[in-house]
C-alpha cells in the first residue's frame, strides 16, 4: 500500500535472555521476576501509542506494515501483547505485512499461535552462524539443532519467513559460507538478511577485538566471502534487492522498503525512532526514563527535530542507494522540486561509484557490494 496516508509501525521489545556479544541494540536481560517489568513496559507502549494517535494520526491513516523487533520479542509471554495489538488493529486496518522477530531458544508454539491469531504474516529469526562453537563465543544461546527445530514450528503456521545471518564472526568463513548456503537452500525461507559484522561500536565483541582477545577475519576477506554468498543465493533463486537483503520473487520486505524509501513510519518503545512528514525522532535509550515518561510533555524523546529540505534529500539518497534498483529520477524530482536534481545526477553518475540508467540512479555492481567508500564519497559531496 503506497499513499500519502499510509504509515508503517515499529514496536521495540527490549528484553532478551542475555545480550549477544556483537549486539549494540538497546536491550536488557530478563530475570525470573520480570513479569512486573513486562507489565510496566507494555503499559508505557500503550501510553505512547495513545500520544501518537492524538497528536500525529487521524482515522484516515492506514497501516502498510507492522514490525515487532528487539531485543527478543519471543521472551515476553504473548498475553502482554494482546491489549496493545487490539488497540493498534482497532485504530488501523490489518496491514499487508505483519512481522515479528523470534529467537530459536525462546519461541514457543503458544507464542506463534498468538501471533497468527492476531494477523501476523511473517516471522524473522536469527541464525547468524550455523556453527555452535561460534554461537557460544558470541554469547548467543542457541544451537543449529534448536534453530532447525524452531524453524519447523514456524513453518507449520507461517508461509513467509526471514532468516538473519552475520558474515565475519570469529570462525572459518569458508565453513560459514558452505554450511549457511546449504542450510538456506535446504530450508528455502522466502527472505534472507546477511549483515557484515561491524565492530566499530562499543560492544563486548568489539572490545575483545580491540584488545586482541579475539581475532576476526579481515574485512577484505569477509567481503570476498559475502560476495560468494550472493552468488550462492542467486543460484538458489534469491535476488539481492538491497545491500543486505535477498528474497525469492514477490517476497521483498514491505516494512524495510518503508525505511529505504523514506516513507512515513512511527516507532514505539525505548530507543525506537520515527519519521513522519519530515519530523524525525528517537526515543530515550533509558528503560527507567521511558517507563516514567510524561508523553504529553514529550519527555520520552532523546532527539526530535523537523528535517530541513537538505536533510530530507540527503536521507533519501543515502537510503535509496541501498536498493539494487536505486532511485527513480521522476520520484526524486517529485519529492524535491526545488533541488538541482539534474546537476546532482550528473555529478553523482559521473563518479566511479554510480551510474544513471533507464531513469534510475544506482550504485554500480562493484560498489553495490564494496559500498563503504561509495557512501563516504556521497557524504563528502552532499
How do the strands and helices of this protein lay out in sequence?
Blueprint: E1 6-13, E2 15-16, E3 28-29, H1 35-56, E4 62-70, H2 81-91, E5 97-102, H3 109-117, E6 122-128, H4 132-137, H5 144-155, E7 161-167, H6 173-187, E8 191-196, H7 204-210, H8 219-235, E9 239-242, E10 245-247, H9 254-260, E11 265-268, E12 273-276, E13 279-283, H10 287-291, E14 301-306, H11 309-320, E15 327-328, H12 329-335, H13 341-349, E16 354-357, E17 360-363, H14 365-369, H15 372-381
Parallel strand pairs: 1-4, 1-11, 2-3, 4-5, 5-6, 6-7, 7-8
Antiparallel strand pairs: 8-10, 9-10, 12-13, 13-14, 15-17, 16-17
Structural class computed from helices and strand pairing? alpha/beta
CATH topology type of the largest domain: TIM Barrel
Shape field: globular
Structure annotation, total helices: 15
**Percent of residues in beta strands?**
15-25%
Spans with pLDDT under 50 lasting ≥5 residues?
Answer: none
**For the largest beta sheet, what order do the strands appear in spatially?**
9-10-8-7-6-5-4-1-11
Q: Report the sheet with the most strands, covering strand number, pairing sense and barrel closure.
A: 9 strands, mixed
Q: What does the average pLDDT come to?
A: 94
| Intertermini distance | 31 Å
Rg, rounded, reads: 21 Å
Helix content: 40-55%
- By CATH reckoning, the class of the largest domain would read Alpha Beta
Corresponding CATH architecture of the largest domain? Alpha-Beta Barrel
Any idea how many domains? 2
